[in-house]
Amino acid sequence: MRRGLAIGMIIVGIALMVISYFGLAAPWGADSVANSDPRLQFAPLLFVLGVMMAFGSALVYEMLPDKSGPK
Fold first, then answer.
1. DSSP string covering the chain, please?
2. What is the pLDDT of residue 58?
3. Rounded to an integer, what distance in angstroms lies between the CA atom of residue 66 and that of residue 6?
4. Rg (CA), the chain
5. What span, in angstroms and rounded, lies between the C-alpha atoms of 26 and 31?
6. Residue 69: its pLDDT value, please?
7. What was the pLDDT predicted at 23?
8. CA angle 6, 66, 13 (to 5 degrees)
């Protein structure tokens, strides 16, 4: 269970990073600096949350007990 939860957190974190950066924060085809504002004001915050989630998956993996018990 802990492996699946950690992998799920990594996948969601990376997806959040990619979507928030390429889809919301860095508009493609901006012809000038004036048109390069992010589509969403808090897109950088979503990117940071994605990074925290991906790195936090290691904490989840280490903190949850293993079903087989200590070795």
1. -HHHHHHHHHHHHHHHHHIIIIIIIS-TT--SGGG---SSTTHHHHHHHHHHHHHHHHHHHHHSPPTT---
2. 93
3. 13
4. 17
5. 12
6. 62
7. 80
8. 5
What amino acid is encoded at 7 in this protein? I
Query: Do 47 and 17 meet the contact criterion of CB atoms below 8 Å apart?
Result: yes
**CA-wise closest residue to 57 among 9, 2, 4, 3:** 9
Domain map of the chain by residue range?
2-26+40-63
Q: pTM here?
A: 0.77
Q: What's the confidence (pLDDT) of residue 10?
A: 96
**Phi, psi for residue 38 in degrees, rounded to 5:** -65, 150
Q: Mean pLDDT of residues grouped by 10 in the chain (71 residues)? A: 92 94 75 72 90 95 80 59
